[in-house]
Amino acid sequence: MFFQNVLDQTIKRIKAQTANVLTLVNLSLGGFAIIECIKGNLSLSLLLIFIAALADRFDGMIARKLSIESELGKQLDSMSDIISFGVAPALLIYQGILFEYGAPGSFFTIFFIGCGAFRLARFNITENNGYFTGLPITAAGCLATLSFLGISYLPPQIYMAIMISLSFLMVSPFRIRKV
Amino acid sequence: MFFQNVLDQTIKRIKAQTANVLTLVNLSLGGFAIIECIKGNLSLSLLLIFIAALADRFDGMIARKLSIESELGKQLDSMSDIISFGVAPALLIYQGILFEYGAPGSFFTIFFIGCGAFRLARFNITENNGYFTGLPITAAGCLATLSFLGISYLPPQIYMAIMISLSFLMVSPFRIRKV
């Protein structure tokens, strides 16, 4: 009985670390995306953000499937999210187009990151009720990243509108059902 | 009595927002530091990180003095910290020197951010017992930023050692009394 308990605890601990390791992979991909963005490899940065989104999708799924959702995991997930879907996409759009606009370009970039941080802080203190309040930062970050693909075709001003709209959608009070 | 209550509530709400606004100022300074870092204005980036550290010091002090410490404020503070004292200093050292080392330089940069995120996630789920567990990310970020001043005088390899040491100090289990 004692050994069974020890074994169960050990397996549970390994399982718990699986989800957290995947969260740290997501964070590292976000960090890597930021560095590639600095180096001017914007297409690689875009790819890394999308792979981070996949990792983010899986860590939550694994945590739920294995019933190992932890408070530490939730907090770590938010830290990863602000890096991979807040800072990284904002810098991608900044480096891709917004830098041309000087101070307003910087403002929209920082505003996106700030709204993302507020969205995550609010999410962390609310109970899970089956709904998201405001657009999740993962979705906003992915949409911003996706919009980067149209940079040669769309008028540049539209990127300010995209960033400000996504920022407001993140902090707005509307609710959408979780899928 | 009713109006007194309404007035008290309103004043309390304004007071609560004071600390949160200062936290958002801290976050914005961090975001601004990252953008200046990308643009190659490393000295300005350094200055912005130090001003963010001052704002970070004040928001906590104000929250405690006015007895308006909130769970949202704590979460928002952590989000600001990962940006201003995790991402910004790591990118400053990367742009200043570590980029010369290619992949290992990127690794140490991301490792610093990852350890900072883990430190903050752990901090958020622990009760305040008057002690910090591991080096706070604010201190680690400021020390990394401070080390940037020696970039012309110190051997470049030392910056890898500084980054890895600060990273491990953040996640290590030693305890220091809060001041």
Q: Could you outline the blueprint of secondary structure elements for this entry?
A:
The structure is a homodimer of 179-residue chains.
Chain A lengths: L1 H37 L3 H24 L5 H26 L6 H22 L6 E3 L3 H11 L10 H14 L3 E3 L2
Antiparallel strand pairs in A: 1-2
Main beta-sheet annotation of chain A:
2 strands, antiparallel
Count of domain modules of chain A: 1
Mass-distribution shape of chain A: elongated
Fill in the CATH topology of chain A. Answer: Four Helix Bundle (Hemerythrin (Met), subunit A)
Protein structure class of chain A = mainly alpha
Termini Cα gap of chain A: 39 Å
- Order of helical and strand elements of chain A: HHHHEHHE
Estimated share of beta-strand residues of chain A: under 5%
User: What is the topology, as strand order, of the major beta sheet of chain A?
Assistant: 1-2
The CATH architecture of chain A: Up-down Bundle
EC number (chains A, B): 2.7.8.8
Protein name (chains A, B): CDP-diacylglycerol--serine O-phosphatidyltransferase
InterPro entries (chains A, B): CDP-alcohol_PTase-I, CDP-diaglyc--ser_O-PTrfase, CDP-OH_P_trans, CDP-OH_PTrfase_TM_dom, CDP_ALCOHOL_P_TRANSF_CS
GO molecular function, one term (chains A, B): CDP-diacylglycerol-serine O-phosphatidyltransferase activity
Please tell me about this protein's structure.
2 copies of one chain form a homodimer. The first copy, chain A, is mainly α and 179 residues long. Chain A has a single domain (8-177), classed as CDP-alcohol phosphotransferase transmembrane (TM) domain (Four Helix Bundle (Hemerythrin (Met), subunit A), Up-down Bundle), CATH 1.20.120. Chain A contains 6 helices and 2 strands, in the order H-H-H-H-E-H-H-E. The N and C termini of chain A lie far apart (39 Å). In chain A, 48% of the residues are buried. Chain A binds chain B through residues 24, 27-28, 31-32, 34-35, 37-39, 71-72, 75-76, 78-80, 82-83, 87, 90-91, 94-95, 99, 106, 109-110, 113-114, 117-118, 120-122, 124-125, and chain B through 24, 27-28, 31-32, 34-35, 37-39, 71-72, 75-76, 78-80, 82-83, 87, 90-91, 94-95, 99, 106, 109-110, 113-114, 117-118, 120-122, 124-125.
